[in-house]
Design brief:
The complex is a heterodimer of chains A (126) and B (163).
Chain A (H helix, E strand, L loop, with lengths): L9 H8 L2 E2 L3 E5 L3 E7 L8 E6 L2 E6 L9 E5 L5 E7 L10 E5 L2 E7 L15
Parallel strand pairs in A: 1-7
Antiparallel strand pairs in A: 2-3, 3-9, 4-5, 5-7, 8-9
Chain B lengths: L8 H29 L22 E5 L3 E7 L8 E5 L3 E8 L11 E3 L4 E8 L4 E11 L2 E8 L1 H4 L9
Antiparallel strand pairs in B: 1-2, 2-8, 3-4, 4-6, 7-8
Classes of the chains: A mainly beta (126), B alpha+beta (163).
Chain lengths: 126, 163
């Protein structure tokens, strides 16, 4: 009996052959939450992966290969997957992170834990 | 007394490597400068970060088949309603405006890498196209414009006149 197995060397090599890009991001800290807009033109919504672990928000997006019938005349941008991670640190509520993909832009909202937010204490007269 | 080589083995062994790196570096710089100055219509290369104050020139891809010219343009976060596509026989103009998606904050805690504001690019076409047969589609942040080559343009003969 013979079983065909993909050798561990070939799989990562094929993956490495595709370029990976660092997407441009805008990050705004609103105090109660951090909002990250990432430019992911061409990415499929199903292929976007957002994870939050140990204070690091990671973003990975698969882009389908460029299917260009005919001859290329000019190529100014590469086509490949997007990868980027951000060290946000402690004090964020992983369960309430939202990610929304629209017009090639992924908007991630990472709320801070209520416990770390400054609390206003009302003064009562005794 | 014995002659001591000026270069130690280790240093001479490193020499080709460091020289190659320097040559690579110089070639890279030359390439950058050539690209920078050979395109007078594009004052800044498209990859220039917005922090450098370069105008936004969206990156494009141009390809052709026997009958079509296809231009793809990366426009993440641009509302398709804000994009103007116009075609003349020999050029395509993509213009528009990207409104800032990032809300403004009062404390200014914003890190910005994306491009905002208006953009405009004129793209010379490899062959004459029929301005009536153009389709433009915006999907996942990428604009795709397909133009049909005009039949007269595909094999137009230009008579050479004798002086």
């Amino acid at each position: 009996m013979t079983t065909e197995t993909v050798s561990p060397e070939t799989a990562p090599a094929e993956k490495a052959a595709r370029a990976t890009f660092r997407p441009n991001v805008d990050i705004t800290d609103f105090g109660t939450e951090v909002v990250i807009h990432a430019d992911l033109p061409g990415a499929r919504r199903d292929g976007i992966d957002v994870t939050f672990e140990d204070g690091v928000l990671s973003l990975a997006a698969d882009v389908p290969p460029r299917d260009v019938p005919g001859t290329a005349i000019r190529r100014e941008y590469g086509v490949g997957d997007y990868r980027r991670s951000f060290r946000l640190g402690e004090g964020f509520d992983a369960s309430r992170i939202t990610a929304d993909y629209r017009d090639g832009v992924l908007t991630m909202k990472v709320p801070r834990l209520a416990a770390v937010l400054p609390r206003k204490i009302s003064v009562t007269a005794g | 007394m014995s002659l001591i080589p000026f270069r130690t083995k280790r240093a001479s062994g490193m020499e080709p490597g460091s020289l190659a790196t320097l040559t690579d570096f110089r070639n890279e710089m030359n390439r950058l400068f050539e690209g920078f100055f050979s395109r007078p219509l594009e004052p800044m290369p498209a990859w220039f970060p917005p922090a450098f104050g370069g105008p936004w020139l969206p990156a494009i891809d141009v390809s052709e088949t026997d009958t079509l010219v296809r231009v793809r343009c990366e426009l993440p976060g641009v509302d398709p309603k804000d994009v103007d596509v116009s075609v003349s026989e020999d050029r395509l103009v993509i213009a528009g405006e990207k409104k800032s998606a990032a809300e403004t904050t009062t404390d200014g805690m914003t890190h910005r890498e994306a491009h905002y504001g208006s953009f405009s690019r004129a793209i010379p076409l490899p062959e004459a196209v029929d301005p009536a047969k153009v389709s433009a589609k915006y999907d996942k942040g990428v604009l795709i414009v397909e133009m049909t080559k005009s039949p007269s343009g595909t094999s137009r003969k230009i008579p050479v006149q004798a002086a």
